[in-house]
Amino acid sequence: MADLQLTSVEKIYGGGFKAVHGIDLHVEDGEFMVLVGPSGCAKSTTLRMIAGLETITDGEIRIGDTVINDLVPGKRGIAMVFQNYALYPHMKVRRNLSFGLKLKREPQAKIDRSTAEVSGILQIEELLDRLPKQLSGGQAQRVALGRALIKSPEVFLFDEPLSNLDAKLRASMRIRITDLHKRLRDEGRPATVIYVTHDQVEAMTMGDRICVMKDGHIMQVADPVTLYERPANAFVAGFIGMPEMNLAPAVLSFNGAPQITMAGQTITISDGLAERLQMREGPVTFGVRPQNVDIVPAGTADALNGVVQNIEFMGHEVNLHIDIGDARFIAVITNDKFDASITRGAEVAMRPHGARVHLFDQESGVNISLADQHKPTS
Q1: Phi, psi of 24, rounded to the nearest 5 degrees
Q2: Residue 229 above 90 pLDDT?
Q3: Residue 116, CB half-sphere, CA atoms under 13 Å: how many?
Q4: 4-234, what's its fold?
Q5: Whole-structure pTM value
Q6: How do 258-262 and 66-67 pair as beta strands?
Q7: Which of these, 14, 83, 193, 306, could form a disulfide with 32 (CB 3.0-4.6 Å)?
Q8: Is the domain defined by 244-361 classed in CATH 2.40.50.100?
Q9: Domain segments of the chain: what residues?
Q10: Which of 61-70, 150-159, 281-290 shows the lowest per-residue confidence on average (mean pLDDT)?
Q11: 87 phi and psi, to 5 degrees?
Q12: Which residues are 328's β-sheet partners?
């Protein structure tokens, strides 16, 4: 296996539309890297350039010590699993699995041995004599995964492979794929994986690191905990997390400690932020995650007064939708802390956990409340 390096990679289509803007990304040998972002952010285009299904306009793509810019897909040492599985409909599962090895003219004994090993790993032995039309979605996806695995590629590429499955099956396949990755690593056969998804749950639960993209730019590359706790900018903060981070325009000032003013209300936040903010004052974007607030009686000091507009009972927790001025905030409250007397139209106050507050530059979106600024690429 090998690491993957993208250096200043660009993609410009006819008419001058630039889809990918000179991105740099380093994926370690054996790492599970997830590319995530909204539709149109160029994550699939990036994957297709790695695969050789799209030519790059500028820059360099390297696997190990080999520059693969001009190599055809079959010579790149990659295997790709598609959203639609792309199984040969007239071939039974056994032949779908082994077809790539037959094209390489591998000995039949090796083909049989590899087919048995892969079908055992993925628990699809009983499917070997079925046609693709006789498979469920989950079974077809396991066969597609096996067809990639049997090639022993240097890099595995996944293009939204679970998006056609129902929620329960997606959850089980997430575990299956990550377990397989860990098993190969433990056996000394580390698999370098680049996995594209628009689903942040997949990204947060599967990736060793996650590359968040927007409009052909890389916004941040980090492990899941860092993305959640220390988003580099307002886009990452709003994209990562369920429900998404509360973001609203505010004004930052100092009166012995940092103060935030919004909707005509001023609260003091943790003075632990003072050193990090370097006494910066003026317009900011205020951010706090729905899980990092307390609901207290209206009029409580250092809390923002608002009106409850909606209440969502989620089972083990409750989501309160609160209007504070023109901004809509969400507060996530566990059942044991929820006051059942709170109803729609009730006046309440939301008190942010000061140490968990994020402040972003309104123009650039950069998180100015971090002790150190993240570089967006890696």
Answers
A1: -120, 130
A2: yes
A3: 6
A4: Rossmann fold (3.40.50)
A5: 0.90
A6: unpaired
A7: 193
A8: yes
A9: 4-234, 244-361
A10: 150-159
A11: -80, 150
A12: 323
